[in-house]
């Protein structure tokens, strides 16, 4: 019988909760070799292999079909994969790792409260400031989908930001941001406000399955999903 590979976070904020869920589901994970090993197995299930990867790598491997299941954030799935719903299935939402991907603008933009207001700002930006509205983010795909796709806003430029994105407007690197927030305190500290229709995605950690033909009729696939769902 073929081996089923489950990718779990090797570090970061989702690591412990992800392992705990499998433990509760009766699939206790043990590291192979020493503590720092990136391979694991499931006690009593010789046909399941665990790959410990970073959260964004898990999204990529699921998209490529090199793992069967993975635990990662929905934001990383939707940002990392074009056509995510065709490549993967969200088998369960796990109830931790909650974060919203949001559009936030400086609090002092008093008359900008909605995406429509922001569209007006974007349309006037070049004539007022001699350049396009700049958006700092690491979420390129989600930003383009929300601005161009859902709101018909085309006049903007994305400025790649890999860290401290909330600081970009004050630093003069961008005008607004798209980033994740959980408590909201980082946005507040940087005098940014979320637009009323600026929540692009409500993300949380998910059990995600790669859509593979070989899964059809494999009862082990259904058993893993059911075992996890039962303990949520
Ligand atoms: N306050 C938060 N800040 C950042 N990410 C959060 C927060 N709350 C939940 N998350 C979620 O955690 C996931 C990212 O986890 P983490 O930052 O631990 O990954 P990582 O180990 O840094 O991964 P990578 O190195 O692949 O980026 C995302 O899905 C994100 O939505
Ligand atoms: O709404 P809040 O509760 O303030 O959380 C949001 C912040 O937390 C994360 O950064 P973090 O400092 O965790 O660093 P990371 O992105 O490198 O993990 C994220 O990038 C935001 O900046």
UniProtKB/TrEMBL annotation:
Subcellular location: Cytoplasm
Biological process, per Gene Ontology: L-histidine biosynthetic process
Role played: Catalyzes the condensation of ATP and 5-phosphoribose 1-diphosphate to form N'-(5'-phosphoribosyl)-ATP (PR-ATP). Has a crucial role in the pathway because the rate of histidine biosynthesis seems to be controlled primarily by regulation of HisG enzymatic activity.
EC number(s) recorded for this UniProt protein: 2.4.2.17
Pfam families with a match to the protein in the record: HisG
Domain ATP phosphoribosyltransferase catalytic: 55-229
Pathway given in the UniProt record: Amino-acid biosynthesis; L-histidine biosynthesis; L-histidine from 5-phospho-alpha-D-ribose 1-diphosphate: step 1/9
UniProt enzyme class: transferase
High-level lineage: Bacteria, Pseudomonadati, Pseudomonadota, Alphaproteobacteria, Hyphomicrobiales
UniProt domain comment: Lacks the C-terminal regulatory region which is replaced by HisZ.
Matches recorded under PANTHER family: ATP PHOSPHORIBOSYLTRANSFERASE, ATP PHOSPHORIBOSYLTRANSFERASE ATP-PRTASE
Family: Belongs to the ATP phosphoribosyltransferase family. Short subfamily.
Assigned GO CC terms: cytoplasm
Protein name: ATP phosphoribosyltransferase
HAMAP family: HisG_Short (MF_01018)
Recorded GO MF terms: ATP binding; ATP phosphoribosyltransferase activity
Summary of subunit composition and partner proteins: Heteromultimer composed of HisG and HisZ subunits.
Keywords of this entry: Amino-acid biosynthesis, ATP-binding, Cytoplasm, Glycosyltransferase, Histidine biosynthesis, Nucleotide-binding, Transferase
Record's catalysed reaction(s): 1-(5-phospho-beta-D-ribosyl)-ATP + diphosphate = 5-phospho-alpha-D-ribose 1-diphosphate + ATP
PROSITE patterns: ATP_P_PHORIBOSYLTR (PS01316)
Source organism: Aliirhizobium smilacinae
């Amino acid at each position: 019988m073929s081996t089923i590979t489950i990718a779990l976070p090797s570090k970061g904020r989702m690591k412990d909760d992800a392992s705990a869920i499998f433990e509760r589901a009766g699939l206790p994970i043990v590291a192979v070799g020493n503590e720092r090993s990136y391979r694991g197995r499931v006690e009593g299930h010789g046909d399941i292999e665990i790959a410990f990867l970073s959260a964004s790598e898990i999204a990529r491997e699921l998209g490529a079909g090199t793992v069967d299941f993975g635990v990662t954030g929905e934001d990383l799935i939707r940002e990392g994969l074009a056509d995510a719903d065709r490549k993967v299935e969200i088998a369960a939402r796990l109830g931790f790792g909650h974060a919203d991907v949001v559009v936030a603008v400086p609090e002092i933009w008093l008359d900008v409260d909605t995406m429509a207001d922001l569209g007006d700002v974007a349309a006037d930006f070049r004539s007022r400031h001699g350049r396009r509205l700049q958006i700092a983010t690491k979420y390129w795909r989600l930003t383009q989908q929300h601005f161009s796709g859902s709101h018909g806003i085309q006049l903007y430029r994305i400025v790649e930001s890999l860290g401290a994105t909330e600081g970009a407007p004050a630093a003069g690197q961008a005008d607004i941001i798209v980033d994740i927030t959980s408590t909201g305190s980082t946005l507040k500290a940087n005098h940014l406000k979320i637009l009323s229709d600026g929540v692009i995605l409500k993300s949380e950690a998910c059990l995600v399955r790669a859509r593979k033909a070989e899964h059809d009729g494999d009862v082990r696939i259904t058993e893993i999903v059911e075992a996890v769902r039962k303990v949520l």
